[in-house]
Design a protein that fits this description.
By secondary structure, the chain is of the alpha+beta class. It has 3 domains: 1-39, no CATH class; 45-98 and 134-178, YaeB-like (Elongation Factor Tu (Ef-tu), domain 3, Beta Barrel), CATH 2.40.30; 196-268, YaeB-like (YaeB-like fold), CATH 3.30.2310. It has 4 helices and 14 strands. The strands form 4 sheets. The protein has a 6-stranded antiparallel beta barrel. A hairpin with a 2-residue loop joins strand 8 and strand 9. It is globular and about 50 Å long. Keywords: S-adenosyl-L-methionine. Pfam families: TrmO_C, TrmO_N. One of its GO terms (molecular function) is tRNA (L-threonylcarbamoyladenosine(37)-C2) methyltransferase activity. InterPro entries: TrmO-like_N (IPR023370), TrmO_C (IPR041369), UPF0066_cons_site (IPR023368), YaeB-like (IPR040372), YaeB-like_sf (IPR036413), YaeB_N_sf (IPR036414).
Length: 269
Amino acid sequence: MLVLINLGPLYILNKRLVSATIQTVHTYLVATNYSFMTINIQPIGKIHTPYKEKFAIPRQPGLAKSAEGKIIFFEEFNDPNYLRGIEQFSHLWLLFHFHQTAEKGHSPLVRPPRLGGNQKLGVFATRSPFRPNGIGMSVVEFVAVSYQNKQLSLTVKGIDLLDATPILDIKPYVPYVDSLPLASGGMAQHSPELMAVTFTEQANRQLNQLEQRYPALASLIREVLSQDPRPAYHQDAHPSKTYGMTLFDLNIQWQVIKRQNIVLTIHSN
């Protein structure tokens, strides 16, 4: 009798594997040097964030410190024991899936924004979301754990994740091994220059009306816009163009005049 074992794209046809265990199959794969087996990863939850679209999300974590996110755990992981002791750590690593870019595939070469979008680097030499496995990682600040109405959640801040991003894993940030002050940062050795952000009278009035609902809104807008979220090819052109971004359910419009972001209006979508 012949047995067909399906491991993603790999099919092994061998009568000796009739009673094989998973370990035996693994040993067979290693011995024959197969390198195209697949691994299934189950998300542990998803994160809710102010960023409802990809445009204007900070390119790195920690740049918008006012940006809070709440991880809602899926049923299988909805147990407070999974987070026991996590409050000992001020910061955490989040591993997640770039779910909105996965279908677009990947390329071995990408154009990092830090190089103006004009130079190409290997995808593994960048943090581009267009990756072979679409896995991202961010260090975030721990805020709180909650278990209300039988639902486990974890609040963090300093996030750079799109709303509803699947979370794959959470690990504590351990300073003595994770912080390397003498490390070389390549093209991103230094933080980018921040842009000034001001609000028109109309935008300030709208902020005051929204303050109770979104207490950190003004800080969040400043932190996001100071990073200059525009595409690299826009940064030296279109001086009178009006840009728009969505935070929470709000549409924020602004212009860039002489390297200064001027927030024009803030409206509910």
